[in-house]
């Protein structure tokens, strides 16, 4: 009662009284948020110091204005445009959308890494963002030292880290290696330790990016479990993922971003449905815009059957996926991989351009490449398939480029027995195991006679 | 509406409200934020110190070898060959007393200049006041400075130069050097983000700056009428001050006061420019 009165009085004297009342029901509000990027100008290394100096000498005012990015001649691009949404305390909000829809930009603004161009975000309490696990890990330092460094970077106080230290070590399962430099860790251990620190952050609002994409299946399960636990404690979580399964399991609501705009803010099921159906018109080819700063970039993906681009295939015929990509500088230990997902989002086939661990040491020269991924006949059962292509470094967990659900293919039944007999049996693949049947021993007629009455009885 | 009941159920005590707004143009640094990140600053500094001599055979001995070797070379070239006067002190002690703050300053400039670019990965992944990156790389040099101070004291014993009460001024002089290093360092760090040219400019600048500073020579070496030029360089005041503190010669109070003013101006300038471009780092780096 007393506290309430004090609160009211404090509210009366507070400058932003209205906002305070408005915010009390929300943990986080995003209002008319936009982010504009200037294309080229700042990425292309034309802006050398010499140029700035000569430019300053020639035309000081115009040049200075241009350097501040205020010139109107520059090509601009809105990564986010007028995004608004609210998140209530304890809510787990999923943010989904294709690549380039503005998810990463939104995350970067939320984590204050970059500033918005217009609009405003307000939140209460501590916001922690995990855009990556293991930020600030130093390879030369021991696990113990890195726990403190990473924890501090994520915003934990030293005392807090010390208090949770045992828990973190326990979660990561690296007791014996605590004093080993992390450069000697296996990639699995590294990721486990990194996530363990992040998992013990205890923020009021947690913003999680694709961190679950790293680590083995068991560890991923552990991560999702931990996130569920965090959400269960009434904390607010913003979860960005390509993993629609994880979004369904974790989130209570979802927002769909498309080309920098928030197109839907609804229940998880509804948003995922809209998202999936927005990719529904089968796209059998896709070109990507070129960004200069990526070491490896996907430039296009085509689906080909019988050397023709086709959005439809027969299940008993092979088809191929042509991936066009270019390399500026090859990140060692990377590969190009393809996820083939069925209509319910399950990954049916995963494949990459190398076949052994030894090949991961292969270097690729700078240039443009074409990879053809041929899927033999009788692999995919009839249905719709989506293809996600990515360039990935498994050891570092870095996704250099990803084209998510970039093309899709309708596989039609090319005359299988299942279809012929009209049996509506849902099978995941059309793989036809090889059958060979032969008569091992022919029974004499007498045995058959003895069996017959039995059969007759059961029928009756 | 289940979501409504959720909001009341999880009603939490009033927590700190944070607002993220667009910012551009000139604005001042958020000092409270930097103060709140002081633990992270210490962590970064400790990391830089720990990492510096990792996987080197000689380890921290490098902190001794580097200034000592420079001192010997300078003694041979400037003391013996060029016969530069050393104000009545043995030249090795004289030059080392100047090298001590200078080496710290030069290392601070070069490491803080490259610090932001070196931390590009951190900057693009997590938020914290960016200013603590160049600050921590300046701070990491303090340990090396302390080690080389011990060497100076040993040299003084060896050359029979007595220690006086003047030594008490040393911490304040160090503060002045740190202020200057922070000012120029943050400025260079911010500039290097946009203009990588500074990677090449910085080593040059340090070299030229050293010869413009009375490190290998004394202030008295410069003709009286040009001495005001020397005053413009705050480092010359401090280095002369360091010599006065360690070797017991009189302080030039005027020149020190002027140096302090210049340092403060530099710090404000560096911090202001840093604050202006801070938000843009991630888009440019």
Task: Explain what this protein looks like in three dimensions.
- The complex is a heterodimer of chains A (460) and B (285).
- By secondary structure, chain A is of the alpha/beta class.
- Among the domains of chain A are: 92-278, Rossmann fold (3-Layer(aba) Sandwich); 285-412, abc- transporter (atp binding component) like domain (Coagulation Factor XIII, Chain A, domain 1, Distorted Sandwich).
- Helices cover 30% and strands 30% of the residues of chain A.
- Chain A is built from 13 helices and 19 strands.
- In chain A, the strands form four sheets. Chain A has a six-stranded mixed β-sheet, sandwiched between helices.
- With 285 residues, chain B is an all-alpha fold.
- Chain B contains 14 helices and one strand.
- In chain B, helix 5 packs antiparallel against helix 8 (141-158) and helix 9 (170-194) packs parallel to helix 13.
- Residues 1-12 of chain B have low confidence and may be disordered.
- The chains are: A alpha/beta (460), B mainly alpha (285).
- Chains A and B meet through helix 3, helix 5, strand 4 and helix 6 of A and helix 1, strand 1, helix 3, helix 6 and helix 14 of B.
In short:
With 460 residues, chain A is of the alpha/beta class. Chain A has helices spanning 2-13, 17-23, 49-58, 60-67, 103-110, 143-153, 158-172, 187-199, 217-232, 244-250, 268-278, 417-420, 445-459; strands at 28-38, 76-87, 92-97, 118-124, 127-130, 205-208, 236-240, 253-258, 261-266, 285-287, 296-305, 308-309, 312-314, 319-327, 335-342, 347-352, 367-375, 383-393, 398-412.
Domain module tally of chain B: 1
Main sheet overview of chain B? none
Shape of chain B: globular
Q: Enter the CATH topology name of one domain in chain A.
A: Rossmann fold
Task: Count interface residues per chain for the largest interface.
Answer: A-B, 61 and 47 residues
Largest sheet of chain A: 6 strands, mixed
Distance between the termini of chain B: 46 Å
Label the CATH architecture of one domain in chain A. Answer: 3-Layer(aba) Sandwich
**Which structural class do you get from the secondary structure elements of chain A?**
alpha/beta
Figure out the total of helices of chain A.
13
| Basic shape of chain A | globular
